[in-house]
Amino acid sequence: EAGVAQSPRYKIIEKRQSVAFWCNPISGHATLYWYQQILGQGPKLLIQFQNNGVVDDSQLPKDRFSAERLKGVDSTLKIQPAKLEDSAVYLCASSLLLGDTQYFGPGTRLTVL
Amino acid sequence: QKEVEQNSGPLSVPEGAIASLNCTYSDRGSQSFFWYRQYSGKSPELIMFIYSNGDKEDGRFTAQLNKASQYVSLLIRDSQPSDSATYLCAVLNTGGFKTIFGAGTRLFVKA
């Protein structure tokens, strides 16, 4: 069974630029999560989808972050414009159902200069 | 008060010893509890989960849950250097739709 795929693995941009991350969950998994993990901290949930509907986006900075999951499969997370404090690893995870074990992708390490 | 609290460590134990990792949570109606392991530079991976009060064993790992005290722990017996990692406690909220992660405890097992 293929795992969660993410791209790119690394990205370096300057502040005020835009960036997009892509995630393809495990086949059949209804729930998809985007997390931000800053060095030394636990993953912080940004947004959670159930199929193509948003379950929770309470911690998503909506003035600069956006995410979509068209057709209920893969998803993109966008940051526009980026700030220095957005430097982090962005993790995508999926689970079969809401509340189930989450399987994480390899993450995208973002550096904002 | 943080929703899920863990001692950041580092916790250092000798090889072969028992490592005890602790986690407290604030949502009294929390339903499920997960322990994930995260190696440096890698993504979290599930070690085990627990739903009911008491102990749950899986190989060298034992999860313990006490809902009355809002406390969950992970014991690692016969600790190995390969167990050196950050251990994340994750708690599923009352509504059963949102999982909150703690900041993690760093564990070092000395050979």
Defining key terms:
heterodimer, A: 113 residues, mainly beta, 7-stranded mixed beta sheet, 4-stranded antiparallel beta sheet, globular, B: 111 residues, 6-stranded mixed beta sheet, 5-stranded antiparallel beta sheet, 55% strand
Q: How would you briefly describe this protein structure?
A:
The complex is a heterodimer of chains A (113) and B (111). Chain A is 0% helix and 49% strand. With 113 residues, chain A is an all-beta fold.
Explain the layout of strands and helices.
The complex is a heterodimer of chains A (113) and B (111).
Chain A lengths: L4 E3 L2 E4 L5 E6 L6 E7 L6 E7 L2 E4 L8 E4 L6 E5 L8 E8 L7 E2 L3 E5 L1
Parallel strand pairs in A: 2-11
Antiparallel strand pairs in A: 1-3, 3-8, 4-5, 4-9, 5-6, 7-8, 9-10, 9-11
Chain B lengths: L3 E3 L4 E4 L4 E7 L6 E7 L6 E6 L3 E5 L2 E6 L4 E6 L8 E8 L6 E3 L3 E6 L1
Parallel strand pairs in B: 2-11
Antiparallel strand pairs in B: 1-3, 3-8, 4-5, 4-9, 6-7, 7-8, 9-10, 9-11
Distance between the termini of chain A: 37 Å
Share of helix of chain A, binned? under 10%
Outline the low-pLDDT stretches of chain B.
none
Structural class by helix and strand composition of chain B: mainly beta
What are the secondary-structure elements of chain B, in order, as H or E?
A: EEEEEEEEEEE
User: Which structural class matches the secondary elements of chain A?
Assistant: mainly beta
Helix content of chain B: under 10%
Unreliable residue runs of chain A: none
Chain-averaged pLDDT of chain A:
95
Percent of residues in beta strands of chain A: over 45%
Describe the structure in your own words.
The complex is a heterodimer of chains A (113) and B (111). Chain A has no helices and eleven strands. Chain A is an all-beta fold and 113 residues long. In chain A, the strands form two sheets. In chain A, strands 2, 4, 5, 6, 9, 10 and 11 form a seven-stranded mixed β-sheet that branches. A four-stranded antiparallel β-sheet of chain A has the order 1-3-8-7, with no helix packed on it. Chain A starts with a strand and ends with a strand. The mean pLDDT of chain A is 95. Chain B has strands at residues 4-6, 11-14, 19-25, 32-38, 45-50, 54-58, 61-66, 71-76, 85-92, 99-101, 105-110. In chain B, strands 2, 4, 5, 9, 10 and 11 form a six-stranded mixed β-sheet that branches. The termini of chain B are far apart. Classes of the chains: A mainly beta (113), B mainly beta (111).
